[in-house]
TrEMBL record, chains A, B, C, D:
Keywords: Isomerase, Manganese, Metal-binding. The keyword Mitochondrion does not apply. It is an enzyme of class 5 (isomerase). PANTHER family: L-RHAMNOSE ISOMERASE (PTHR30268:SF0). Gene3D superfamilies: Divalent-metal-dependent TIM barrel enzymes. SUPFAM superfamilies: Xylose isomerase-like (SSF51658). Coiled coil: none annotated. This is L-rhamnose isomerase. The keyword Isomerase applies. One of its GO terms (molecular function) is L-rhamnose isomerase activity.
Length: 388, 388, 388, 388
């Protein structure tokens, strides 16, 4: 039997980080469809993110993306976030949109370009120092499009060198989180294509380096929860970039494509101790809204993670263990599915009401008039983001 | 034994169509890397395409993309092409970059948007009338991102209605070529996701409707040459959009990722009669150069198709048939591989020299100074293409 | 609002067919793990299948597989089934386990082998005549392993010829259901690899030929519910072989790998009229139990289909249509997800109790002692099935 | 410029290991098609393997599979091999075909089964001691079919424990080679599913543990040559199981599905120093012949590896490096492709003639009458292998 009050307590401690860029325009290579009220400044993105936290209560931090969120005074930006009821979270380094990075950033064959990329990474650590952010998230678009284009192994040497330099620059309470991705924008080799590559580098870098699992960055058929379980066992799981996909890196709302997979991932997180704050896992969203309204889509994603977490917490661990140990294939599967098939929405509504929130965050936000207000106010200017 | 003079004659008759947009800037959703000398007008794209034909001798036509290649006077554009030594080929309709098409074009739930999309398709037929183009290529980005977002079946009804309207507008010597694509930019359903869907619609539309196979538009593991063989048997193969991919729709240079697959495709084309001009197959390139120089990359792609074709023509049909009929698995495979393993570059160099061309088109173009000239001349203005 | 009594009535009309071979031993190429009590005769398989119907009430028919289920007197077998409370359903033709079929059956390059295969198909129609079965299910393992091994197009000619001969032999109330499969056991080309190929053949064969969708037979990323919706629109969907997979044709229990996909499929069935008995869709299970107890696994699969169907029936069609028409992406998705997230198990338990059944079929069967009884009784003899 | 005499010398030093099981019957889960002359004893398998070496000159060792190749006196078997002109190579442990291993071997939830599995692994080391084999190859079919079936993390603990026990038993000149595989026969989780998992375990196990790359064991889209380059950089690549695939683990002849990929792999081997005997890479074949004659298919595979190696050795390293460093995407790709497009068959024929062999191994073996002889002699008895 699962203890419902313990489940509720665990759910109250949940913390999901929102990406500032999810509030700005984004899209596919074919078209970026704009939306009314799109933020024009980092502050406006933070204000939008604060709305998500206001209605869900479990999204208290916002990740920055540099240079998209460049400001003159980062301490001031952090203070602004606190005023909005949230805080600045992970700092994401962008070394893929400068013309110099056409053939790579930290793995570029040109030492001058590599130095430029490294300078940007150092600058991001500077932003962390100013905002109090603890985590530097590193995703490298580096790779090649054609066989022979560059030396695969030399690029690993360059990568290792850059990562070491970053590690040496980190403060004692700061981490570097290394993200992997199978492909895109590189189409032949990618320099950090899978968890094994990220893990191997992080192992050498030491305790301040950990792996980030973006749920959309795997080959078809990859069992993501296995990776999660494995990295937790090694204490090398640094965090998640949650989103969902049917095909490639579709970057759809979390839980939209395969809610059962999201549940299985959250189950392994819980089972492996990753839900314990002491483990330090950063639960981040990273999705690319193209056709849906951004703030409600972030609320929906947060709720989807929350529902999957509630189901994972509801798994009867004792019954599952007994069935597993006795080799009862159908019985063990049934214990897990019983939790998944439970409709946890009433439980979560109750939880919200107990905490003084509206039981239906989507409806409450819709009623608030916020979307209409920003559409009216945010006229002119240019959105700060993606293709900015 | 294969008759080499017949092979050469067949190779002399080859005709590959270049896409105007391949000469303009393009890229991934993360970044479009610009290049010096990028064309600013449809005329400049045609001039660049003419260079490819000049050095290869087998790329005599250029596909247009509307509205990227919009001009006031299409007849004049066609005349310009002829002056350059090429001709205007297929007209490609773009109904995916207008804000109104966010939720689809011809399958949009809004009838007003559907009408707007159809008007654009009619306008493209107008361009065909003016330029003498015979083929209208239809690729629809239409689809949905989320389960439930729209009615999958109703979208098929709308699609069928639009396609019929287009068919009714075609002149007697015009065709419509329907392209399919598994995903992107739609990430849950795509309205024409596979050859079966395209085929079923074309069958109802009649003889003027045929299927286009883009070699990058399939699920992993799909046997493309099977589709080619099947459609040829049904006389429903209208043409190809050649490019190559390791992962999704990577749009790399033709033959760069899997030259053996390209050979197998060309073998089925030859075997199924698709190389006979009477069959009317349009051999088009459609690739998206992001990091490589565009004109040389088009030359490389044309040469790769030519080499694969030469190998396909070299297959000893008699020996293959005998081995197949006798159930000699290893023997039949060996006949095919013998052709593939042949280095046809000397044969093709000889062919070019016999025709008064430089035996090495890549080197000849590089020596010509054309790239340096356009980089110097084409300063200012804005490229006409992709995100234009 | 959905009418619950209508949902219940619809669920009472559900009919899922069980495969006789699912009760016999089966496995992977690496090992077939046997189980105690495995059926030694077709009658014992039917008896086991009848247990599934007894506890679920919605599995009233059993598919045969010839020659695995060969008996001297098929009318007697049909009578035996009726005594057990079920009936004989689809007849499945096996033309892949005879040594002569090494290079194919109906598409074999050897005309003698083709004739032998056709004779077997005719014999299966004879079984249908004797048992009163209405449907002949055709899955061909035919294909090639190596490029060049056989002529892809000639194999289509041979396939078409065989299918026409089968069609001509069918009685007026009989159907042929053509199944497709991407790969395995053929690893280069498969002669009916996808729905498009099956559809094209069925179209020419006329009204008595329809396509079967096996949910495990697609390339990664294929949107199966799109195919279902498309075939229903064309009235060419003949039925399903339900099972589930994470990777290839894993043949796991239905709904075990992706319950959300199963729901989406059943939603398209309902939406497209396929749940109406008049449409004649055969809902069959086809899974390959290797490590789990077979009868309980079939009960579990039937329940999983039932739960997915209940959720599909609960979708608020009016609300969905309104959201779709207004372009409300998040709203439309939410309507669908609301049904999916509903825990329908209490509703189904209530339904069973109203019908005089145990509310928990798995537990009731476990209590019955049937498994223990057959393990004790069925000693000696050889199982009739798979590798028999 | 590449030095041809150095290329020839390198090719003369090549050594490819043959799997004993490739000469026995094998197949798919649907059917194992037998062949005349199939070996009935380990000795007959070795005799067949010796034929491959006789005609190619580069296949001097044969891997054993225990228990398929169980004999009373392994020293005698090793002596027999030497008489045949070959030697016993890697010992492959089979812990997947005993009924006790239904839910796993070394990761089974039952400690008794785990002990039994470990005993078998120790017995395999005994075979190594007796035959002088240096390498123990470990492939575990262990995994689960259903979510919840067993504890993913506990299975890693059990795996680590077993691997340590094996490592402790190894002699100082022996290695353990850990193979990974994405799926099959397990269909939900596999305990060693990818190179990252194998690498992480090997790292902890120390210098005597290395990773084996089976070219058919990856998710669609995986860049295998990247893995090869990465493991070589870490000195953790122990060897290859070569075969080829279009879909899953098809186990086709090496180089049959994607000869360009095989070339790219061999290029990374050469570039990363893996072709140097001092690196100790074991180049093994592992394929599953179902419809093709086994000995000729092994010859074909050896020749395909040899051709890919020759092309890899022909790459102009200086020109490639210069183009890569200057960021010349098309130029660098062209250097690599120039080698790949070269027809190396004349060079290899010349090499064989210089060494006193027939220039055409396939034809020479066919002329030898060996196949006819074994078909006549090996009558009766039962094949020793796969499903034996």
């Amino acid at each position: 039997m699962t203890d419902l009050s313990a489940v509720k307590a665990a759910l109250r401690g949940q913390s999901i980080e929102l990406p500032s860029w999810a509030f700005a325009n984004s899209g596919t290579r074919f078209k970026v469809f704009g939306q009314p009220g799109v933020p024009r400044t980092p502050q406006e993105k933070i204000a939008d993110a604060a709305q998500v936290h206001r209605y869900t209560g479990i999204a208290p931090s916002v990740a920055l993306h540099i240079p998209w969120d460049t400001v003159d005074d980062y301490a001031e930006l952090a203070a602004y976030a606190r005023e909005q009821g949230v805080r600045v979270g992970t700092v994401n380094a962008n070394v893929f949109q400068d013309d110099d990075f056409k053939l790579g950033s930290v793995t570029n064959p040109d030492p001058g370009v590599r130095a430029k990329a490294l300078d940007h990474l150092f600058a991001c650590i500077g932003v962390m120092d100013a905002t109090g952010s603890a985590d530097l998230k590193l995703w490298f678009a580096d790779g090649t499009n054609y066989p022979g284009q560059d030396d695969v192994r030399a690029r690993q040497d360059r990568l290792a060198e850059a990562l070491e330099a970053v590690r040496d620059r980190l403060g004692p309470d700061q981490r570097m989180l290394l993200e992997y991705k199978l492909f895109e924008p590189a189409f032949y080799t990618t320099d950090v294509p899978d968890w094994g590559t990220a893990y191997a580098h992080c192992l050498k870098l030491g305790d301040q380096a950990q792996v980030v699992v973006d749920t959309g960055h795997h080959a078809p058929g990859t069992n993501i929860e296995f990776i999660v379980a494995f990295l937790l066992r090694e204490h090398k799981l640094g965090g998640f970039d949650f989103n969902s996909r049917f095909y490639a890196d579709d970057d759809l709302m979390v839980g939209a494509a395969d809610p059962f997979q999201l549940f299985r991932i959250m189950y392994e997180v819980v089972r492996g101790g990753g839900y314990d704050p002491a483990e330090g896992i950063a639960f981040m969203l990273d999705q690319c809204h193209n056709i849906e309204a951004k703030i409600p889509a972030q609320i929906r994603s947060v709720l989807n993670v929350q529902e999957a977490t509630a189901k994972a917490l509801l798994v009867d661990a004792g019954a599952l263990d007994a069935a597993q140990r006795s080799g009862d294939v159908l019985g063990a599967n049934a214990v897990l599915m019983d939790a998944y098939n439970t409709d946890v929405r009433p439980l979560l509504a109750e939880l919200r009401e107990e905490d003084g929130r509206d039981p239906d965050p989507m409806a409450a936000f819709a009623r608030s008039g916020y979307l209409e207000a920003i559409a009216a106010e945010r006229v002119g200017g240019r959105q700060a983001g993606w293709g900015a």
